[in-house]
């Protein structure tokens, strides 16, 4: 197959992908699975496919003791009955856009064996997952400097109830201990299911401290195992970006945040109404694929989240 035939076949494949602009159910399901399998916070969080742009998620639970002393032949009094608490959270999806450029050279390497469609979907899913992670973490509707991050408030801004101020101190066991203690104990039923989320550099710093102990756990961590702190995995995420602790601009003043949260407490809504549009730039010898979607993020229970701020973001 010569270059002309490759480009013609690619054009037909991309035209099929973008028919009507909107993904069909098969295309959406394939894309959605690839997206949430990408190595971002989406892999851990609870993702919700939204059939409409705005929807409510109902919550129900018991916030206090439900068991009472049992007396044979005697029913509980009205004031002893357990009543569940109910509430809702709302997801209001905002439109976002991702662009993927596929060069003719890339097509030449992937056109054989009908692999082009899978390649396109994989590239789109990886790009969208990373962009979504940036928004669901760093989104801030008061951020006038970045129109993209201004779309929604992310988990960084939404976590307000239990703040641990490290005031420029680095990653130590004291950090994780303080965060652990900050979460109300009623939520920590199975700590192993929770996660400490931090930056990649701070995850690496903690790994280095664990490895330096020269224990079996240290060896396991050195070989690529996920480090723990007080029985809870410590995981780095790409888009947890650092910031200047005092605004002076010195590199040594860069700090970061961390979260202690059950991953399924993070609800990421993603609209089913995904559209794909395709164009060809013959001068740059590439295809341009533009995807638009809508998303939002909420904590199902914000009280069950601890956030540490101003953690030194350097490797010692």
Could you characterize the architecture of this molecule?
- By secondary structure, the protein is an alpha+beta fold.
- Helix content is 28%, strand content 28%.
- The chain has two domains: 3-56 and 89-146 and 268-296, Major capsid protein gp5 fold (2-Layer Sandwich); 161-266 and 301-312, hypothetical protein PF0899 fold (2-Layer Sandwich).
- The chain has eight helices and 14 strands.
- Helix 2 crosses helix 4.
- 30% of the residues are buried.
- The mean pLDDT is 82.
Give the ordered list of helices and strands: HHEEEEHHHEHEHHEEEEEEEE
- CATH architecture descriptor of the largest domain: 2-Layer Sandwich
Percent of sequence in beta strands: 25-35%
Structural category is alpha+beta
Q: What general form does the structure show?
A: globular
Query: CA-to-CA gap between the ends?
Result: 54 Å
Number of strands: 14
Radius of gyration: 24 Å
Helix fraction, binned, reads: 25-40%
Low-pLDDT segments, ≥5 res: none
Short description:
The chain contains 8 helices and 14 strands. The protein has 316 residues and is of the alpha+beta class. Helix 7 packs antiparallel against helix 8.
Keywords:
single chain, 316 residues, alpha+beta, Major capsid protein gp5 fold, hypothetical protein PF0899 fold, 2 domains, seven-stranded mixed sheet, five-stranded mixed sheet, globular
Secondary structure layout plus pairing:
Elements: H1 3-17, H2 25-36, E1 46-50, E2 54-61, E3 85-92, E4 94-103, H3 104-110, H4 116-138, H5 155-158, E5 162-165, H6 173-182, E6 195-198, H7 200-211, H8 216-222, E7 228-229, E8 232-236, E9 243-244, E10 254-261, E11 266-271, E12 275-281, E13 286-299, E14 306-312
Parallel strand pairs: 1-11, 5-14, 6-8
Antiparallel strand pairs: 2-3, 4-13, 6-10, 7-8, 9-10, 10-14, 11-13, 12-13
Helix pairs in contact: 2-4, 7-8
């Amino acid at each position: 197959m010569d270059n002309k035939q490759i480009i013609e076949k690619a054009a037909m494949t991309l035209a099929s992908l973008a028919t009507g602009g909107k993904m069909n159910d098969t295309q959406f399901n394939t894309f959605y699975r690839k997206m949430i399998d990408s190595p971002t916070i989406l892999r851990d969080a609870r993702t919700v496919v939204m059939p409409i742009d705005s929807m409510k998620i109902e919550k129900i639970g018991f916030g206090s003791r439900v068991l009472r002393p049992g007396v044979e032949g005697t029913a509980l009094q009205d004031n002893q009955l357990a009543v569940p608490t109910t509430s809702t959270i709302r997801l209001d999806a905002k439109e976002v856009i991702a662009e993927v450029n596929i060069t003719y050279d890339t097509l030449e390497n992937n056109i054989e064996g009908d692999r082009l469609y899978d390649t396109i979907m994989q590239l789109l899913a990886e790009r969208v997952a990373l962009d979504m992670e940036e928004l669901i973490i760093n989104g801030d509707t008061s951020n006038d400097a970045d129109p993209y991050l201004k779309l929604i408030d992310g988990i960084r801004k939404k976590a307000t109830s239990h703040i641990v101020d490290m005031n420029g101190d680095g990653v130590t066991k004291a950090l994780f201990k303080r965060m652990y203690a900050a979460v109300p104990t009623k939520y920590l039923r199975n700590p192993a299911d929770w996660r400490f989320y931090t930056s990649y550099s701070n995850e690496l710093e903690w790994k280095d401290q664990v490895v330096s102990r020269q224990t079996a756990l240290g060896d396991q961590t050195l070989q690529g195992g996920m480090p723990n702190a007080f029985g809870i995995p410590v995981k780095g995420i790409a888009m947890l970006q650092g910031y200047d602790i005092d605004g002076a601009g010195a590199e040594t003043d860069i700090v970061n945040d961390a979260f202690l949260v059950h991953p399924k407490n993070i609800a990421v809504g993603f609209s089913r109404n995904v559209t794909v549009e395709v164009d060809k730039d013959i001068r740059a010898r590439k295809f341009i694929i533009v995807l638009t979607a809508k998303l939002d993020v909420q904590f199902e229970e914000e009280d069950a989240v601890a956030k540490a701020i101003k953690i030194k973001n350097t490797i010692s």
